[in-house]
Design brief:
This protein is an alpha+beta fold and 388 residues long. It has three domains: 165 residues, Sandwich (Immunoglobulin-like), CATH 2.60.40.10; 83 residues, Immunoglobulins (Immunoglobulin-like, Sandwich), CATH 2.60.40.10; 125 residues, Immunoglobulin-like (Sandwich). It contains seven helices and 24 strands. The strands form seven sheets. Strands 10, 13, 15, 16 and 17 form a five-stranded mixed β-sheet that branches. It has a four-stranded antiparallel β-sheet with strand order 1-3-6-5, covered by helices on one side. A hairpin with a 2-residue loop joins strand 18 and strand 19. The protein is rod-shaped, with a radius of gyration of 41 Å.
């Protein structure tokens, strides 16, 4: 009769459904104490466990038929003498005594308590437990004893539980980081990361490793397909599981065009138009030559800015440079070199000092040389190279 009165009293403050979720809650013991106080105000942990015991009895877990004294597991594996646990994951073992003529005033746990786990050590309560995060896998046998009196005195009852701690998941480890790569402005490329670990999740980001301000939408796989890009970019990936996370190194993606990507942007994918030896606009300049000097391959080009003259016993040469910019020139620069020869034979050309590998940026280049008795020939070499 006394017990029924208490059930009725506590039921006013804590519904059975609320207590069920409380007892099976996977949060730490201190967490559900805070949760409990939401219903019943400030209370000591011994009172919380005591109320939980009464609620369990009201839910039918109490052995009211035989009256035999026993200690039974409530969570995480109700009714079993084996307690499942994982290393690195929270364990909340809750057990209660039923059938006893008196409520225990003290509890004791002896034997092999797994490292990282502690005894709740409740007072004057039908319910007690162990809580913590096991750190080492193994089989641990513990002896749970309920005492009639305080300070482990008086009649007692002991139950043996076997705690089976299995290896938990390890934090992910990167075995191969995403690599730096090059791609043209019309193509795609794929970055890849290799990891070891269980139940891993991926999130790719744009920018330097560790900077999470620019997540890539939907990029939740070991592979990241990117492109076409118009400028150099950086990417990295964060890999996580329940045991931790790790950041990859930054992968630098450099956009560097070539004749093929330039021609595709000028003519599309028509193979007959993309041929570097073709002269599609009929101005006497092949497609490849137009690409090198920066003229249009679809409009006839006239070079009105290169001049050569003889003035006051001087040969004067001038030309305008062009920077390598626009479609098909990503990551490239145009360079100019002036050479001279006395007889224009193949091996007679020599570099004019001070006029070699000049990077074009729209500037005018002028050259003056004294006229000698012999013949003199000049030529201008234009090339495209990757930016240094």
């Amino acid at each position: 009769m006394q017990i029924n009165n208490k059930i009725s009293l506590y039921g006013k403050h804590l519904p059975k459904a609320g207590l069920t979720s409380l007892l099976l809650n996977k949060g730490a013991a201190t967490h559900f104490i805070t949760y409990e106080s939401h219903f019943v105000g400030s209370a000591a942990i011994t009172q919380i466990v005591k109320w939980s015991s009464v609620a369990v009895a009201g839910l039918g877990t109490y052995d009211a038929v035989s009256g035999a004294t026993q200690i039974t597991q409530i969570a995480p594996s109700s009714g079993s003498s084996t307690v499942p646990a994982k290393a690195g994951e929270l364990l909340n073992l809750v057990y209660q005594i039923t059938g006893a003529p008196h409520r225990p005033r003290s509890w004791e746990v002896s034997g092999q308590i797994p490292p990282g786990v502690t005894h709740l050590n409740t007072k004057n309560s039908n319910t007690d437990g162990l809580t913590g995060i096991p750190t080492s896998p193994g089989t641990y046998k513990v002896f749970v004893t309920a005492y009639k009196g305080s300070n482990l005195n008086g009649y007692s009852y002991t139950k043996t539980f076997t705690i089976e701690v299995t290896p938990g998941s390890e934090p992910p480890v990167i075995s191969n980081h995403p690599l730096d790569t090059k791609v043209t402005s019309v193509n795609e490329t794929t970055l890849e990361v290799e990891v070891t670990g269980e139940n891993v999740e991926y999130q790719w980001y744009k920018g330097e490793s560790g900077v999470t301000s620019a997540p890539v939408d939907g990029a939740n796989d070991k592979f990241l397909k990117i492109g076409p890009l118009k400028e150099d970019s950086k990417y990295w990936v964060k890999i996580s599981n329940d045991s931790g996370s790790v950041n990859s190194q930054t992968a630098n993606v450099k956009v560097v065009d070539n004749y093929t990507s330039w021609a595709e942007q000028q003519f599309g994918l028509a193979a007959e138009l993309n041929d570097p030896k073709e002269d599609n606009d009929g101005d006497g300049l092949t497609n490849e030559y137009e690409y090198l000097i920066g003229s249009s391959p679809v409009e006839q080009s006239l070079d009105s800015e290169t001049e050569i003259s003889i003035e006051d016993s001087l040969i004067k040469l001038s030309f305008m440079t062009k920077s390598a910019q626009g479609d098909g020139y990503a990551g490239l620069e145009r360079i100019y070199s002036v050479e001279e020869s006395n007889d224009i034979s193949t091996n007679s050309w020599k570099a004019v000092p001070g006029y070699q590998n000049v990077v074009g940026n729209g500037q005018k280049i002028s050259l003056s040389k004294a006229i000698n008795d012999g013949k003199k020939y000049y030529r201008l070499k234009v090339n495209i190279r990757e930016k240094s």
